[in-house]
Amino acid sequence: MIVKRTELSFWERLYLPAIWGGFKVTARHFVNTVFRRKSVTMQYPEQKWVVPEGYRGAPYLVKDQEDNTKCVSCQLCEFVCPPKAIKITPPGPEGQPADRRNAEKMPKEFEINMLRCIFCGFCQEVCPEEAIFLERDYSLTGLSRGEMIYNKEKLLSLGGTHAGTQKWKHKLEEAKEQEVFPVKD
Amino acid sequence: MPFLEHLSPTQQFLLFSTLKIVAAIFLVLLPMVAYSVLAERKISAFIQDRVGPNRVGPFGIWQPLADGLKSFVKEDFTPDHVRKVYFWLAPALSLIPAFLTVAVIPFGSFLGKQKMVIADLNVGILYTFGIVSLGVYGIVLAGYAANSKYPFLGGIRSSAQMISYEIAMGMSVIPVFMLVGDLNLSQVINYQSGGAWLVFKQPVSFFIFLVAAFAETNRLPFDLPESETELVGGYHTEYSSMKFALFFMAEYANMITSSAMMVTLFFGGWTLPFGGLDQPASTLTGGLLHIGIFLGKIVALMGVFIWVRWMLPRFRYDQLMDLGWRRFIPVALANILATAVVLWLQGAK
């Protein structure tokens, strides 16, 4: 394709109309910003951006409605994590029992290195217990590398309560129902 | 002041010259450089719907101090591949000419008995052009010293650009001196204090001088030596910390001195055409007022410099050369000729 280049008129070649046009645009913006306060700047630490639904921020552990740890230390997230940011210490045979009834165990320690985390959301995707979620925090700061490794306590306190289904509670109820109503043949 | 009378005229001259130099550089020029950087950032912000620096003090007025401190404490990194001597020499060479030009500019009428000009040379304008042309060496040397391709290209571009526009600039002021009949800048102001400012008598001269000043100071739309988009940073790519800050200061100091030149040549210097402000001051307040008028005019022209940067896109290199050689030089020559003919006809009467 050949782009047709139109011959500029003398007036256009003088360049002065372009200068005047440029002045009009810049003056309009200047007046709007200075006198009508229409600047688009967000004063960041004071004003914060409203994070949209579905945003992938920092991964935190959540608790269920009865304040129990949802994580059952299955370590799927640890295995799926591409940058190996998650480190789970299982409770072992003599460890503390799980908070929830019917759940087999819960992690003794759960660490996420936020400097390694790439916020991909695989942990949330893979979790069979809906125990880990990428939440809205995007501005994580610390004074040392060690400070950026979040432990179980910190992750749980930041994660809050999740309003989802309580899987093991329903399993318990199902089991009870099956005892009351035996399977028909 | 009795102790002054014990000094010989030479000693008095030395004392007052030193005072004027120190005051002009450290009390006027350097703070103006610092605050024109802030003004540039603020105005650019407003034009682009932003707020600009506003954290350091109210409306960010201490920002230049913070920037200066930052420049001093940053690591002064010298890359391994540079030519060390020239690398150290270049920033100084670009800043010094900008300061030297101030010497001949009359920045006020009288303060007490002292004439408010550091050196009242009778070839003031020739001195200015001589010194301003030296400014290109800093940039060329920086480009050469960096020993890498982008700064080198920036240095070459800048030398071509500055040499080209130097000619148009020099020719554009010839009609001014044909009218005034003297190369002394104080005489130029005296000429304007009687009648109209030279910008009204020589608008073409002023226009060419203004555009050439933009090119000489490497400001947009002629900032080809820097060209962030294709030359990384141009001639100062390899510089950091205070050495970079010196280039930055040189750019703004050059803007201020060329504004001062334009004020002197075309806008009547320290005069204002009403209230008796066009006559040399006899009182101390009058002298200070004249200095204030001169600085006010410089600030207004600096505003033009800054505003234009955010208004116009950059010229292509061939367009720049075309404009310099094939438009401005012929127009400047024609202007000289026209002025000569008019003066000849007036003289013939």
Average pLDDT across residues of chain B? Answer: 83
* Number of E-type strands of chain A: 5
Beta-strand percentage of chain B?
A: under 5%
Number of helices of chain A: 6
Overall mean confidence score, pLDDT of chain A:
86
Distance between the termini of chain B: 53 Å
* CATH architecture field of the domain at 59-167 in chain A: 2-Layer Sandwich
| Largest sheet, strands/sense/barrel of chain A | 3 strands, antiparallel
| Secondary-structure class of chain B | mainly alpha
State the helicity of chain A in percent bands. 25-40%
In oligomeric terms, what are we looking at?
heterodimer
What structural category characterises the helix and strand content of chain A? alpha+beta
Rounded to an integer in angstroms, the radius of gyration calculated over CA atoms of chain A is 28 Å
Strand order of the largest sheet of chain A: 2-3-5
Span between termini of chain A: 77 Å
The CATH class designation of the domain at 59-167 in chain A is Alpha Beta
**Largest inter-chain contact set:** A-B, 16 and 12 residues
Strand content of chain A: 5-15%
The poorly predicted ranges of chain B are none
The topology string of helices and strands of chain B comes to HHHHEEHHHHHHHHH
Give a verbal description of the structure.
The complex is a heterodimer of chains A (185) and B (349). Chain A has six helices and five strands, in the order ααβαββαββαα. Chain A has 185 residues and is α+β, with helices and mostly antiparallel strands. Chain A has a domain at 59-167: Alpha-Beta Plaits (2-Layer Sandwich). A three-stranded antiparallel beta sheet of chain A has the order 2-3-5. In chain A, strands 1-4 form a two-stranded antiparallel ribbon. In chain A, 21% of the residues are buried. Chain B has one domain. In chain B, 69% of the residues lie in helices and 1% in strands. Chain B has helices at 2-5, 9-47, 63-73, 84-100, 124-146, 149-180, 185-194, 198-201, 203-216, 228-231, 241-266, 284-309, 317-348, and strands at 110-111, 114-115. In chain B, strand 1 and strand 2 form a beta hairpin. In chain B, helix 3 (63-73) packs across helix 11 (241-266) and helix 11 packs across helix 12 (284-309). The interface between A and B is medium-sized, with 16 and 12 residues.
